Amino acid sequence: MQNGNNDDLFSISPNGSFEVSHSLDREKNSLYIITVTAVDSGNYTDRHRFFNINRDKLHIYGIVSFKGLPSLTGTLTFVRFQNSSDFPRLNVEIVHFSLSEDEPVGTLVAVISAASSRAEPISFYLASGNFEDVFLVEQTSGAVLLEKPLDYENRKDFPLLVEARDAGSPPFSSFAEVYLNISDVNDNAPQFTQGEYQCNVFENSPPSIFCDVLAVDADSDIYGMVVYRITEGNSEDIFSVDPENGLLSTTSSLDREHIAEFNLTIEAAELENPQNKDTTTVVVTVLDKNDNPPHFTQVFYIEVTEDIPPGHTVSQITTSDDDTGANTLTYSIVDENEDLPFYIDLTTGFITVVLPLDREEHDHYVFKVVVNDSAWSVSTDVTVTILDVNDNKPEFSHAFYNVVFPETRDEEVLVLQVIATDADVGKNAEILYLVEPSNVEFWVNSSTGEIYTKHRVILKVLAKNAGVITEMNTDEALVHINVINTNDAPIFSSTRYLANISEDSSIGTSVVKVSALDQDSFSDWSRFFFSIASGNTELSFTIDASSGVVSVNSRLDRELCSIYHLTITATDNGSPPATGTTDVIVTIVDVNDNAPMLISTLAEVKENQPQGTIAARLNASDPDSPPNQGPFTYKHIHCIQ
């Protein structure tokens, strides 16, 4: 207000409410003309503090303005005064000065009544203070009712201004203030500020606070007090939470290599009503420290062929580290042998050949590889086995062999063993022996030669590696063989003779005839005689020395000996004598020359036994063979008293 309010009888609020500040006297002044100014934009020349930064706090201030045009607007307000008795007279009956926020809609809050001597009926309105239209006043009855649910957390009081308006023209109004307090109820559960918290803690750190969680309960006083606890993910009690302020701590040092991450469930419950609660997840990441040495991923056994050229990479030494992050590893070989033909790259661990290899001189190498990181040093043994290649030819132990060999009619008789050696190993050292040129009288296998001949002969034997013969992988030796005549043993026409003869045959009966042949060229060496060498039990048989006829020599008894195994020899007159052998198997055929015999001849029976009682059961045996034994016929001859 710029003028017209010299006695400060009126006041106006920033929201435009025009009010009387002091008592008025109509008889003294019945009309006031007041100029009211409304400003819709701030003064940009004003100095405002936007920032205030010191060691303790940071204050930031902001001004929101609307640059309206024009910036100033003026209006005149006319205030006319009527007789005070012309305004409605109000009466307020408060039913509830304080309302619980869970009061049901429709609750009667107050009853406004009014009377007017000027013009009735009176209508009632809520002029101000009814934020979000929570309350309702009935126009005719003046009953103030709860229209919408209350929320203490949204608004804690309502300064209602009630208007009573008469029916005149213009209408006159009177106002009354109804101040209502809202009381809190426990209608809110705690809520965490985050659905998930991400927290970090270094391994091997001593027990300490590393994170905090916050849950807010919109209720007031004791209804808003929250208690924290860990409900899941803390099976080993590694973590604890302060029940009052939500500070998370470790109870012992952690090992990232054992468990790298924990998922904790934190509960915030009301102290007054633990059923009102909320939960959140805390993901605890254990940060790494270099507390583990690198370790080799395997035992290193390397195989390299001896013909691999220098500069060739044969393997890579690999390591792993339970720690994370970039821990630089360096590799080196620790070996006192200056002639070691290998080199390892400092950073990659690749092992490279630097000198020629020869398996025949050195078939394996064992050396130590050391790996270092920023804090640890470990080592391992590396074994390199040199594999053979076929770089050596066979060599005979002699360049010339001379052998005198007696003639023989046996097959595959060893004449001579020629030996060649090869400095290589495995397949590369396998030697094949060949007769060159090929000869039908002789053959030789991979290590020996069996010779059959009647003539004097000289052989050339080759020893070569397995595979195609070349000048580089063969060697040769000459074998001189002189075959001399020897006494050959007589050879029977059969290696086994079978014969059957009855046991009642008379002495001199022919059983079988054997025959033999001696192929010696000397007539004296080709003559021979027969004899029984073994198996002639009780001299049961005899053989004619010249004809080879085997005859019965004594009485035969099948029950004493049923089969004879005779060894027959043919011995020549050579020097020394040579003997051939054969087997004669003679089976004795049974005749019925034995009577049956009772096995049991004594039986006992009790007296007074009824007729038909079995007194004894007789058994008999016969040493003859079927069909000359059983079944038997039993006959009662007489009874001896």
Automatic annotation (TrEMBL):
One Pfam entry name: Cadherin
Protein's UniProt name: Cadherin domain-containing protein
Predominant subcellular localization, coarse grouping: membrane
InterPro entries: Cadherin (IPR039808), Cadherin-like_dom (IPR002126), Cadherin-like_sf (IPR015919), Cadherin_CS (IPR020894)
Lineage: Eukaryota, Metazoa, Chordata, Craniata, Vertebrata
Xref: PROSITE patterns: CADHERIN_1, CADHERIN_2
Gene3D superfamilies per the UniProt record, alphabetical: Cadherins
PANTHER family membership: CADHERIN 23, CADHERIN-23
Keywords: Calcium, Cell adhesion, Cell membrane, Disulfide bond, EGF-like domain, Glycoprotein, Membrane, Metal-binding, Repeat, Signal, Transmembrane, Transmembrane helix
Domain Cadherin: 6-90, 91-192, 193-296, 296-396, 397-492, 493-598
GO CC annotations, alphabetized: catenin complex
Superkingdom of origin organism: Eukaryota
Compartments where found: Cell membrane
GO MF, one annotated term: cadherin binding
Membrane topology: Single-pass type I membrane protein
GO biological process: anatomical structure morphogenesis; cell migration; homophilic cell adhesion via plasma membrane adhesion molecules
